[in-house]
TrEMBL record, chains A, B:
It is an enzyme of class 1 (oxidoreductase). Phosphate binds at R118. InterPro entries: Asp_semialdehyde_DH (IPR012080), Asp_semialdehyde_DH_beta (IPR005986), NAD(P)-bd_dom_sf (IPR036291), Semialdehyde_DH_NAD-bd (IPR000534), Semialdhyde_DH_dimer_dom (IPR012280). This is Aspartate-semialdehyde dehydrogenase. One of its GO terms (molecular function) is aspartate-semialdehyde dehydrogenase activity. The lineage of its organism: Bacteria, Bacillati, Cyanobacteriota, Cyanophyceae, Synechococcales. The active site is at C147 (acyl-thioester intermediate), H260 (proton acceptor). The keyword Transmembrane helix does not apply. Its EC number is 1.2.1.11.
């Protein structure tokens, strides 16, 4: 086992990181998002001095290769955050809630992938291409938005910046990865069961996704929207700073492995020429246009799997409303929908 | 080979069938819909005297079991329709166009599953639960609507009958069966390829549907809607006799075998209480409610596969518009979306 010596702890006095390689801790490294976080820290040459992988007692002691180093998972406890500059947390809301105070008390910045603090006043909820300035106003915690929301706001923001948006109606096509690595495995296993003529039985997800689909299984709220749908509504409003945006969503899980798709109907206060929308989106950061009407070629999950950009296409005038546009998008749920956005958030705090 | 003797030909003088067992011909019996038609004629005790299976020269001569009979496929030609009362056509638009005149000249009623005549003036486009009376006004041809449209109108009609509908926004989740039996086989084969670590290559469909999805691959129209989407728009208006209904759709193929799903946002001219909508839909013919908010149990493709009703659920007040409702539905594409509706159309013409 090779470990870098810990960098001596210096309390941060600004919202940005100090100008030196950082001590980084990842909470939940073994999950689908955690694994992608490790990959991205390496790929993007994030300035890492020490990398700590923090896990439950059960997982502590196992090892993980990273950037030529062999790192042993440590059990998470308050002392583990001493000297850490950045904590990338993706072990779920309850773990994030449990360790937030210890993390901020240690002076680390927590970039949290859970929904625990997203709607909390004073916690920036940030998509770097959309509201980067919000990140610097943090008090130790920056929240990484819901995956479907991140992908959607990349397409909505450039349009909303041009003309006031009145109402958004979204239907999602969400991959198994949104429920974690085990759900992805289950989709593969149960698909094999169906192909072999058997009867699939969902365990990680409540029903089998194999050649099947179902409305998102997060708990229903009093208004009959599921939690996932209300995350989209509330988080989109917060990120885009449009607290009164009229927004409705239907969230659906589909038998796709790791990329989400969304059918988006956007009503504006006035007509929005399609060519202007296309031009804005083709220049928008984090967005890639895939549009070839002649060959009927528009974004597909397989176009974005393992890739950074959100693919947008089929931008068209809504024939039912002169003020509305329709568009379609796909994005890698684990990457831009989670891990990439989290690492980009941390990058916003690097000294320039 | 056992064949029933042909019933002597008597020209029909009314739009209804004569009060005797009918001579029925099926055009396109070997396809996914054709096979389901045969099943339904048997299951529903449709009054069949002779059953002719008409096919291209290539398929003629092969045999098919039906209701205890062995039937030899005959090559389709004009003479084949002599003495036939009912032709169930599901061999595609060009075949339907080719034989329409011969069929009607022979005095048979053509129930056509293709899109060839759906929007033609004087051709009734009928969903028996929605506009049964239209069927009797035929001039020899009754058109069976597009699958997504049939499923949708079953849910829209009971609501539109109560309060004026202003605008509908639909996103579909369409199964492989919509592209025929070969597309279903391809989905299975390519899913196995992916599970075995290979690279799937679509041939029946333009791209692989295995753990993937894409916008419906029907040709794009000048307005940037694909043909499938415009079928939904135009056919829904015709069936519901709402020529000015504002309607937009995004049609998507998903890796499901034979049931379509739809996320439907409906704006009315005034508020529509959810409980009233639920009560109307629970009493609507052809509709089954699947709604258990406590266990998050709503319609799934596997609920309706091989079954007659359209399953509707998750009826909720749209939080973005006081006059709008959201709902979700699933229906078997081959059955109610095609073959069952066609047989029900023919049943409308049986003497009571």
């Amino acid at each position: 086992m090779s470990r870098q010596p810990a960098v001596p702890f210096t309390p941060r006095l600004s919202s940005s990181f100090p100008a030196r390689p950082l001590n980084v801790a990842v909470l939940g490294a073994s999950g689908a998002v955690g694994q992608e976080l490790l990959l991205l820290l390496e790929e993007r040459n994030f300035p890492v001095a020490e990398l700590k992988l923090l896990a439950s007692a059960r997982s502590a002691g196992s090892t993980q290769q990273w950037n030529g180093r062999t790192i042993t998972l440590e059990e998470v406890n308050a002392a583990a955050f001493e000297g850490v500059d950045l904590v990338l947390a993706s072990a779920g809301g309850s773990v994030s809630r449990q360790w937030r105070d210890a993390i901020t008390a240690a002076g680390a910045v927590m970039v949290d992938n859970s929904s625990a603090f997203r709607m909390e006043e004073g916690v920036p909820l940030v998509v770097p291409e959309v509201n980067p300035d919000a990140a610097l106003a943090h008090n130790g915690v920056i929240a990484n938005p819901n995956c479907t929301t991140i992908l959607l706001t990349l397409a909505l923001a450039p349009l909303a910046a041009r003309r006031p948006m009145r109402r958004v109606v979204v239907s999602t096509y969400q991959s198994a990865s949104g429920a974690g690595a085990r759900a992805m495995e289950e989709l593969k296993t149960l698909s094999q069961t169906v192909l072999d003529g058997g009867t699939p039985q969902g365990e990680v997800l409540p029903y089998s996704l194999a050649f099947n689909l179902f409305l998102h299984n997060s708990p229903l709220q009093a208004n009959s929207y599921c939690e996932e749908e209300m995350k989209m509504v509330n988080e989109t409003r917060k990120i885009m700073d449009l607290p009164d945006l009229r927004f409705t969503a239907t969230c659906v899980r589909v038998p796709v492995l790791r990329a989400h798709s969304e059918a988006v109907n956007i009503e504006f206060e006035q007509p929005f020429p399609v060519e202007e929308a296309r031009s804005l989106l083709s220049a928008a950061p984090g967005v890639e246009l895939i549009e070839d009407p002649a060959t009927n070629r528009f974004p597909m999950p397989t176009d974005v799997t393992g890739r950074d950009p959100v693919a947008v296409g089929r931008i068209r005038q809504d024939i039912s409303d002169p003020n509305a546009l329709e568009l379609w998008l796909c994005g890698d749920q684990i990457r831009k929908g989670a891990a990439l956005n989290a690492v980009q958030l941390a990058e916003l705090l690097l000294p320039s």
